[in-house]
Write a structure and sequence with these properties.
Helix content is 34%, strand content 15%. The chain is an alpha/beta fold and 326 residues long. The strands form 2 sheets. Strands 2-1-4-3-5-6-7-8 form an 8-stranded mixed sheet, sandwiched between helices. A two-stranded antiparallel sheet has the order 9-10.
């Protein structure tokens, strides 16, 4: 299925896949990154779970507290969850860029990337399949969080979820809230969650919904960083879903917030720069003309030399984390 709303993005996405590897990308691929992966767990054409997998299993690489690895010495772990149409190489670049932006803000903790089957076809049908896969990944993320907390019980868990990654967190928290094993108290709760450019309904997190209740019961501090100029949310999401996303204007006007929920407009934190990775040009770089436009820029912008040139909205996230620690 192809229509006038999607054609420019599909064409840009196709051209991106034709780009050759660069030395910067190869350097990132060679880094020892911390990853929980559910790649190849789902059929990209049907969203069905593959028969060789279970709804809660995951693969882990270099994860503190798992597979005999010691828990980190600073008692914190950040979990970065990417959005839709992100391949495995792009995930590694995004993890690395998040680390660079955190380090710029003098916050040095292990960053784990949650890598999932988001690389469906770029059309309305692929978007629907990606949403289904994201929802199913909630059980897998919930199981990882439960396993990690069991093995590293004194650690702060901090989640950053970009775009459709918010759907995974929504599903995971609902599962944790319904799980009798997960202790729902301020000591064992997830320390903080930040949504950046969240591609889910603006009603999803309202008070007394399943997700809103789960936020209150399983998280200490929940933050939604929204951006009224986000190019992807203003175009594809609005035209496809016929409703406003949480990442564009925040919770729907007039709705009540969960008690531990905070929103902030971060439009001015996203400069009008294209090619946020510095390596490849994502399809969402289409129509970047003013602050806030680049859906890929929340975790920062990298130059062609591989070095960070702007930290996006990560400075806001770090300020919130430091306030949590006081």
């Amino acid at each position: 299925m192809k229509n006038k709303n999607w054609s420019p993005y599909m064409d840009l996405f196709a051209r991106r896949h034709q780009l050759p590897y660069t030395s910067n990308l190869l350097n990132i691929l060679n880094k020892k990154l911390i990853i929980v992966s559910t790649r190849n767990h789902f059929d990209l054409e049907t969203s069905q779970l593959n028969m060789s997998r279970t709804i809660e299993d995951y693969d882990s690489y270099n994860v503190p507290g798992l597979n005999g690895n010691p828990c980190s010495e600073n008692n914190e772990l950040a979990v970065y969850i990417h959005g839709v149409w992100t391949g495995q190489m792009a995930v590694k670049e995004q993890i690395d860029r998040t680390i660079l932006s955190l380090n710029l803000n003098e916050y040095n903790i292990p960053v784990l990337g949650f890598s999932w089957d988001s690389n469906t076809v770029v059309n309305p049908s692929g978007w629907t399949i990606a949403k289904s896969i994201a929802t199913q990944n909630g059980r897998k993320l919930a199981k990882f969080l439960s396993d990690f907390r069991t093995n590293c019980p004194n650690h702060n868990i901090r989640i950053i979820a970009h775009s459709l990654g918010a759907k995974i967190v929504e599903s995971a928290l609902i599962n944790l809230n319904n799980n009798q094993v997960w202790k729902k108290n301020s000591v064992d709760n997830i320390t903080s969650i930040h949504f950046i450019g969240a591609a889910i309904s603006d009603r999803a997190a309202t008070k007394n919904t399943q997700f809103g209740t789960a936020i209150e019961n399983t998280v200490n501090n929940f933050y939604n960083l929204y951006n009224p100029k986000d190019n992807m949310l203003r175009s594809l999401y609005l035209k496809t879903e016929n409703e406003s996303p949480l990442g564009l204007f925040g919770i729907k006007k007039g709705e009540s917030f969960p008690s531990n929920y905070t929103e902030q407009n971060v439009m001015l934190e996203i400069p009008p720069l294209r090619k946020a990775s510095g390596i490849y040009k994502p399809f969402v770089d289409h129509a970047v003309y003013e602050s806030g436009n680049n859906h890929s820029g929340y975790i920062g912008f990298r130059g062609v030399d591989g070095k960070l040139k702007d930290d996006g909205a990560i400075n806001i996230i770090v300020a919130d984390w430091k306030n949590n620690n006081r």
